[in-house]
Write a structure and sequence with these properties.
Blueprint (H helix, E strand, L loop, with lengths): L7 E2 L4 E2 L4 H11 L3 E5 L5 E6 H6 L6 H4 L7 E2 L4 H10 L4 E6 L2 E7 H10 E4 L5 E3 L16 E3 L14 E2 L6 E2 L2
Parallel strand pairs: 2-3, 5-6
Antiparallel strand pairs: 1-7, 3-4, 6-7, 8-9, 8-10, 11-12
Length: 174
């Protein structure tokens, strides 16, 4: 699955000269813990988080408080790669860009939702989203062949294990 399918699109962003008080108000109002900082062309130049606000009491604007080294991903980056990033870099969110423009953000909460509401057909590997698994696979027609998304452990040097189809032995996408 690609990150573009689970990201939060139309993300709220601020500019370098946004006063920190306003940043704090946006964070509070939207109950998010960080915001991308963009220039006039929607190019992402930093991220300002609640941590920055607390840790840098003398900063006056988003530009002064923001973290410059922003890791961003593309819409077609896999969910697994992003999960790996969030865990290994100990970050809470990653901006999603198309070309050089900011198009969304993906947070730990988005990944948690993906785990909670995504079901994988054990026969054809089709993924469906919903509170409950579908009664029948819309792709291969197998009745009740759906199981929760298998989330392989992320760790030092651990490769993502592959899974095989119980019927034909083919590798299933995770
Ligand atoms: Zn199926």
């Amino acid at each position: 699955m690609k990150i573009g399918e689970i990201m939060t699109p139309n993300v709220i962003s601020v500019t370098e000269d946004t006063p920190l008080r306003e940043v704090a108000q946006v964070l509070d109002r939207h109950r998010v813990s960080g915001l991308p900082v963009v220039d006039g062309d929607e190019h992402i130049i930093g991220v300002v988080s609640e941590y920055d606000l607390i840790a840098k009491p003398n900063a006056r604007t988003a530009g002064e408080a923001m973290t410059h080294d922003v890791i961003s991903v593309m819409e077609d980056t896999s969910v697994d790669e992003v999960r790996f990033l969030l865990v290994n870099r100990k970050i809470k969110r990653v901006p999603v860009i198309r070309g050089t423009r900011l198009v969304g953000i993906v947070s730990r909460a988005d990944l948690v939702r993906e785990i909670a509401f995504t079901w994988v057909c054990q026969v054809c590997g089709d993924t469906e989203r919903g509170r409950n698994p579908p009664d029948q696979c819309p792709k291969c027609g197998t009745p009740s062949g759906f199981e929760p998304t298998v989330t392989p452990p992320v760790g030092e040097g651990s490769d993502v294990p592959s899974r095989t189809c119980p019927t034909c032995g083919q590798e299933l996408p995770i």
